[in-house]
Each structure stands twice: as C-alpha cells, then as structure tokens.
Amino acid sequence: TAIISYCLIFLVIKPLFLQPYSIFSDSMSPGLRPGDRVLVSKSAYWFVGPRRGDIVAIHAPVEAIQLDQELKDQELVKRVIGLGGDVVESRGGSITVNGKPIPNEYGKLITPYNFAPLEIPRGELFVLGDNRASSFDSHQWGPIEKRLLVGRVTGIVWPPAHIGSVR
Q1: Catalytic residue among 29, 41, 78, 90
Q2: For a 10 Å CB count at each end of the chain, is N or C smaller?
Q3: Is-contact 19 37, C-beta < 8 A?
Q4: Would you say 37 and 157 are in contact if contact means Cβ atoms under 8 Å apart?
Q5: Active-site residue 165, yes or no?
Q6: CB contact at 8 A, 144 and 88
Q7: What is the pLDDT of residues 6-63, one digit of tens each?
C-alpha cells in the first residue's frame, strides 16, 4: 500500500494538482525570500481566472527569455497586478490600476521606474514582483498570456520558520 500511495502522490497528485517550487531571487521579498519553498496549486484556475493580488507561478515568457537566456525553461513567481482590460501605470513611485493605487500591503512598494498607461489586452496579465527595485517582470517585458500560468502559490512549506499561507 505504501508503493501505491507513493505512486498516487507522485504520478497523479503532484503533476496534476500541486507542485513545489523554490524561490531563487528576492523579487517577491519580504513575503517570499530566496530559499523558501512554496506550493503551487495547478488546479486553482481550472474554473475561475486569476484575480488581482494573486501570487502566481508562470512560465518565463519569450520576451523575458530574449532579455535573459538563463530564464529558458524556468518558472517565475510574481503577483498579478492587472487583468485583461485594465489600464496599469507607474508614476511617482506607485502603481495604479484603472486610476486607483494598488493596495499598500505587498511589501517593498517604492517603485523606482515609471511607465505610461498601458491597457492590458484581453486574455493577458500584468505581473510584478513585490520588491519593485529588484524584480524582472512585466514592467520590462510587458503583459503575459494567461496560458503561461502554472498556478497559484498557496503557501510556504519550507523553511519551518516561514511555513504559512501567502498574502
């Protein structure tokens, strides 16, 4: 029965539903730090779409890989800031979505760059790291197609001192 359980977990549950990922950069700090291991729910968006504020794992988009070849075949962890139809802008150190500042709860929110209002195309997402000064994200490579979503980050599972849900 142990072999059957092992096979069920690693051949069915893991590939279809849950996937562990390691955080390699500080782009999502202070909430997620290098060395943290997170669980990603691959089934989270089977019936509903992502929402603003969700932390997601994504396949690196072609535009990002063109700027940094080391990202080929890698997944990144970012926060969804804008959905299709939203207008996202960065000015004066803050990000606005549809003319309203995003909530000031995601970490190091001083944004050291500006970009003009950008309407996110339908079927695409605008994703940023919480640590705006140290994140390679949509402000550099633009919106991403929803098909690049791996899933929603559900919680930190390692190290023990950081175990818990993500906000």
Answers
A1: 78
A2: N
A3: no
A4: yes
A5: no
A6: no
A7: 555 555 555 567 888 888 888 888 888 899 999 999 988 988 999 999 999 998 877 8
What's the alpha-carbon Rg for the chain, to the nearest Å?
Answer: 16
Non-local (6+) Cβ contacts of 142 within 8 A are: 63, 118
Whole-angstrom distance, CA of residue 147 vs CA of residue 53: 18
CB atoms within 10 A of CB 75: 17
**H/E stretch holding 164:** strand 164-165
Phi-psi region of 35 (alpha: psi -120 to 50; beta: other; left: phi over 0): left
- Give the span between the Cα atoms of 116 and 100, in whole angstroms: 15
CA distance 98 to 18: 33
From 27, 29, 90, 138, active-site residue: 27
Neighbours of 37 (CB within 10 A): 16
Distance CA 135, CA 90 (A): 15
How many alpha carbons fall within 13 Å on the CB side of residue 35?
Answer: 5
Known catalytic residue at 78: yes
The tens digit of pLDDT for each residue in 48-96 reads 999 999 999 998 877 877 777 777 778 899 999 999 999 999 888 888 8
